[in-house]
Amino acid sequence: MTSTPLMPKATAVWLVDNTALSFEQIAAFCKLHPLEVKAIADGEAAQGIKGLDPLLTGQLTREEIDKAEADPKHHLKLAERKVRVPEARRRGPRYTPVSRRQDRPNAILWLVRNHPELKDSQIMRLVGTTKPTIQAIRDRTHWNAANLSPMDPVTLGLCSQIELDLEVEKAAKNAPRPPVEEAGSTLLSVEETTAPPVRDADVFSNTGTPSEPEPEEEEYDPAQVFAKLTSLKGSSKDEDEEPDEEDTTGEEETSGEEETSSEASEDSAEEEAGSGEESPSEESGEDRKPE
To answer: Whole-model pTM?
Structure first.
């Protein structure tokens, strides 16, 4: 037997009234004296105690009781608990070794700076200090405030990381939440980040104005398409030939103009030459008249 059943006297009362177990078996199971169990059976002890069924509480099984009734030398055994009940811890001030007590102000300063949401009672549980010391460090009125440097209490060995995380989580739950307007920017949800990008056309198309029906695609006949292509090719050839004809007519006109200009220049040169020949004769005639 490693543990005692819950409410041993009430369990013994129920076993005495509802089973055929011997006093020694009940006394061994309930951690009582056999004479005390005999007094319960005689009604001299535990008169106002109501029996507790160990089957309902899961401390015994019906097979275990039947086995013990069949064998008087068999000792009852507690059934295995389905739920582990943590052991109750004794509450008291945390003991800090003498060699680490000088580091407590540094740990308090670290907690005050990095976790301002922690209460003084939580810091006292973590580091094992007093409230006046915490207040003095907050107000910078500590006698050694100039030489203090923040240090993690976990690295100093004053508390464990699990204990620190639990206290921080409790403080975060109890802390008032900021209003929605003053809250900072938050991360987008998975649906918003994984959604395809929205185009401007989709945005304007989703407005209240009714959208125009899209024109239906026309079906094209291959024969008509090839006929249009051949007609376009023929028209392009005609356009290419027309500029050539215009160029030839232009050249002919320019050559004719050049010929006429050359003839005109020759005629003017001959006239000048003729006038030049006639002028000296006239001058000589005029000179001869006075004679």
So the answer is: 0.35
CB 122 within 8 A of CB 94: no
Q: What is the pLDDT of residues 22-33, one digit of tens each?
A: 999 999 998 889
- Distances in Å between the alpha carbon of 205 and those of 127, 197, 201, 236? 64, 15, 6, 42
Domain count, the chain: 2
Q: For residues 9 and 111, what is the distance between their CA atoms, to the nearest angstrom?
A: 50
* Average pLDDT of the residues in 175-198: 68
Among 62-76, 96-110, 225-239, 262-276, the minimum mean pLDDT is found in 262-276
Asked if the structure places residue 90 within a domain, the reply is no
Q: Which domain holds residue 38?
A: 8-70
Is residue 245 a part of any domain in this protein? no
Tell how far CA 254 is from the center of its chain: 83
| Cα 102 from chain centroid (whole Å) | 42
**Do 165 and 110 sit in the same domain of this protein?**
yes
| Same-domain status, 111 and 65 | no
pLDDT digit string, tens, across residues 107-140? 999 999 999 999 999 999 899 889 999 999 999 9
Distances (CA, A) of 177 to 172, 181, 260: 9, 12, 105
- For 7: left if phi > 0, alpha if psi spans -120 to 50, otherwise beta; the answer is left
Cβ count within 10 A of residue 112? 16
* Residue among 49, 44, 51, 62 nearest 16 (CA): 51
CB 54 within 8 A of CB 60: yes
Asked if residue 216 is part of any domain, the answer here is no
Which residue carries 């509480």 as its tokens?
A: 57
Residue 215 has pLDDT above 60, yes or no: no
Mean pLDDT across 178-184: 54
Report the C-alpha gap between 125 and 20 in whole angstroms: 53
Residue 214 lies in a domain: no
Same domain, 65 and 108: no
